[in-house]
Amino acid sequence: MAVRPHLSDRYQHILKATIQHYIATAEPVGSKTLVEEYNFNFSSATIRNALGKLEKEGFLYQPHTSSGRIPSDWGYRLYVDELMERQQGVTAPCQTGGPLPGHGANNAGLGCDASRWGLFRTAA
Fold it and tell me: What does the mean pLDDT of the chain come to?
Protein backbone atom coordinates (compact mmCIF):
# COMPACT_ATOMS: atom_id res chain seq x y z
CA MET A 1 0.00 0.00 0.00
CA ALA A 2 1.28 3.50 -0.82
CA VAL A 3 2.41 5.73 2.01
CA ARG A 4 -0.11 8.50 2.58
CA PRO A 5 1.37 11.93 3.31
CA HIS A 6 0.23 13.64 6.49
CA LEU A 7 -2.21 16.48 5.84
CA SER A 8 -2.63 19.36 8.27
CA ASP A 9 -6.09 20.14 9.61
CA ARG A 10 -6.36 23.02 7.13
CA TYR A 11 -5.67 20.75 4.14
CA GLN A 12 -8.03 18.10 5.49
CA HIS A 13 -10.85 20.66 5.84
CA ILE A 14 -10.23 22.01 2.33
CA LEU A 15 -10.12 18.51 0.84
CA LYS A 16 -13.27 17.49 2.69
CA ALA A 17 -15.17 20.61 1.56
CA THR A 18 -13.96 20.14 -2.02
CA ILE A 19 -15.13 16.53 -2.15
CA GLN A 20 -18.46 17.28 -0.46
CA HIS A 21 -19.14 20.12 -2.90
CA TYR A 22 -18.16 17.99 -5.88
CA ILE A 23 -20.43 15.15 -4.69
CA ALA A 24 -23.32 17.62 -4.35
CA THR A 25 -22.83 19.43 -7.67
CA ALA A 26 -20.74 17.20 -9.99
CA GLU A 27 -18.87 20.39 -11.00
CA PRO A 28 -15.16 21.15 -10.56
CA VAL A 29 -14.63 23.13 -7.35
CA GLY A 30 -12.70 26.41 -7.26
CA SER A 31 -11.25 28.40 -4.39
CA LYS A 32 -13.86 31.17 -4.64
CA THR A 33 -16.67 28.63 -4.24
CA LEU A 34 -15.02 27.19 -1.13
CA VAL A 35 -14.56 30.63 0.44
CA GLU A 36 -18.15 31.68 -0.26
CA GLU A 37 -19.95 28.46 0.62
CA TYR A 38 -17.82 27.01 3.43
CA ASN A 39 -16.87 30.23 5.28
CA PHE A 40 -13.16 29.53 5.53
CA ASN A 41 -11.24 32.15 7.51
CA PHE A 42 -8.53 32.54 4.89
CA SER A 43 -8.33 34.05 1.43
CA SER A 44 -9.12 32.39 -1.87
CA ALA A 45 -5.39 32.66 -2.71
CA THR A 46 -4.56 30.54 0.35
CA ILE A 47 -7.17 28.00 -0.70
CA ARG A 48 -5.81 28.00 -4.28
CA ASN A 49 -2.37 27.19 -2.91
CA ALA A 50 -3.81 24.39 -0.78
CA LEU A 51 -5.73 22.99 -3.77
CA GLY A 52 -2.48 23.03 -5.73
CA LYS A 53 -0.70 21.10 -2.99
CA LEU A 54 -3.56 18.59 -2.75
CA GLU A 55 -3.36 18.14 -6.52
CA LYS A 56 0.42 17.66 -6.38
CA GLU A 57 -0.06 15.03 -3.64
CA GLY A 58 -2.58 13.18 -5.84
CA PHE A 59 -5.79 13.86 -3.90
CA LEU A 60 -7.31 16.18 -6.53
CA TYR A 61 -6.86 16.88 -10.21
CA GLN A 62 -7.70 19.74 -12.52
CA PRO A 63 -9.44 18.63 -15.74
CA HIS A 64 -8.65 21.92 -17.53
CA THR A 65 -6.17 24.70 -16.80
CA SER A 66 -8.85 27.24 -15.91
CA SER A 67 -11.25 24.89 -14.09
CA GLY A 68 -11.63 23.97 -10.45
CA ARG A 69 -10.48 20.70 -8.93
CA ILE A 70 -12.05 17.24 -8.93
CA PRO A 71 -11.33 14.49 -6.40
CA SER A 72 -9.06 11.67 -7.54
CA ASP A 73 -9.59 8.04 -6.57
CA TRP A 74 -7.01 8.53 -3.82
CA GLY A 75 -8.81 11.66 -2.61
CA TYR A 76 -12.10 9.76 -2.41
CA ARG A 77 -10.37 6.92 -0.54
CA LEU A 78 -8.96 9.32 2.06
CA TYR A 79 -12.37 10.97 2.36
CA VAL A 80 -14.16 7.67 2.94
CA ASP A 81 -11.52 6.23 5.27
CA GLU A 82 -10.73 9.28 7.39
CA LEU A 83 -12.72 12.44 6.67
CA MET A 84 -16.32 11.38 6.09
CA GLU A 85 -18.63 11.69 9.07
CA ARG A 86 -20.20 8.38 10.04
CA GLN A 87 -23.97 8.20 10.29
CA GLN A 88 -25.83 6.76 13.26
CA GLY A 89 -27.14 3.27 12.67
CA VAL A 90 -24.62 2.35 9.98
CA THR A 91 -23.20 -1.03 10.82
CA ALA A 92 -19.62 -2.17 10.59
CA PRO A 93 -18.55 -4.19 7.54
CA CYS A 94 -20.32 -7.52 7.54
CA GLN A 95 -18.65 -10.73 8.57
CA THR A 96 -18.98 -13.77 6.37
CA GLY A 97 -19.24 -17.35 7.46
CA GLY A 98 -16.87 -18.47 4.71
CA PRO A 99 -16.52 -18.55 0.96
CA LEU A 100 -19.47 -18.57 -1.39
CA PRO A 101 -20.66 -22.10 -2.12
CA GLY A 102 -18.76 -23.69 -4.99
CA HIS A 103 -16.26 -20.84 -5.32
CA GLY A 104 -13.28 -21.88 -3.19
CA ALA A 105 -11.61 -20.19 -0.25
CA ASN A 106 -10.14 -17.18 -2.09
CA ASN A 107 -13.39 -15.23 -2.13
CA ALA A 108 -14.49 -15.43 1.50
CA GLY A 109 -15.52 -11.75 1.55
CA LEU A 110 -16.99 -11.61 -1.97
CA GLY A 111 -20.60 -12.25 -0.94
CA CYS A 112 -20.39 -9.58 1.73
CA ASP A 113 -18.92 -6.99 -0.63
CA ALA A 114 -21.30 -7.84 -3.45
CA SER A 115 -24.38 -7.62 -1.24
CA ARG A 116 -23.20 -4.39 0.37
CA TRP A 117 -22.83 -2.74 -3.03
CA GLY A 118 -26.11 -4.16 -4.34
CA LEU A 119 -24.51 -6.43 -6.91
CA PHE A 120 -26.93 -9.28 -6.35
CA ARG A 121 -30.34 -8.86 -7.90
CA THR A 122 -33.46 -10.50 -6.60
CA ALA A 123 -36.61 -11.29 -8.50
CA ALA A 124 -39.35 -8.74 -7.97
Answer: 78
DSSP state of 4: P
Q: What is the pLDDT of residues 32-51, one digit of tens each?
A: 999 999 988 889 999 999 99
Helix and strand element counts for the chain (H, E)? 5, 2
pTM of the model: 0.66
Chain centroid to CA 116: 18
Top-confidence residue, 9 or 6: 9
- Please name the amino acid found at residue 40: F
DSSP 77: H
Q: Distance between CA 51 and CA 49 in Å, rounded? A: 5
Say which amino acid occupies 23. Answer: I
Domains annotated on the chain, with CATH: 9-83 (1.10.10.10), 94-124 (no CATH)
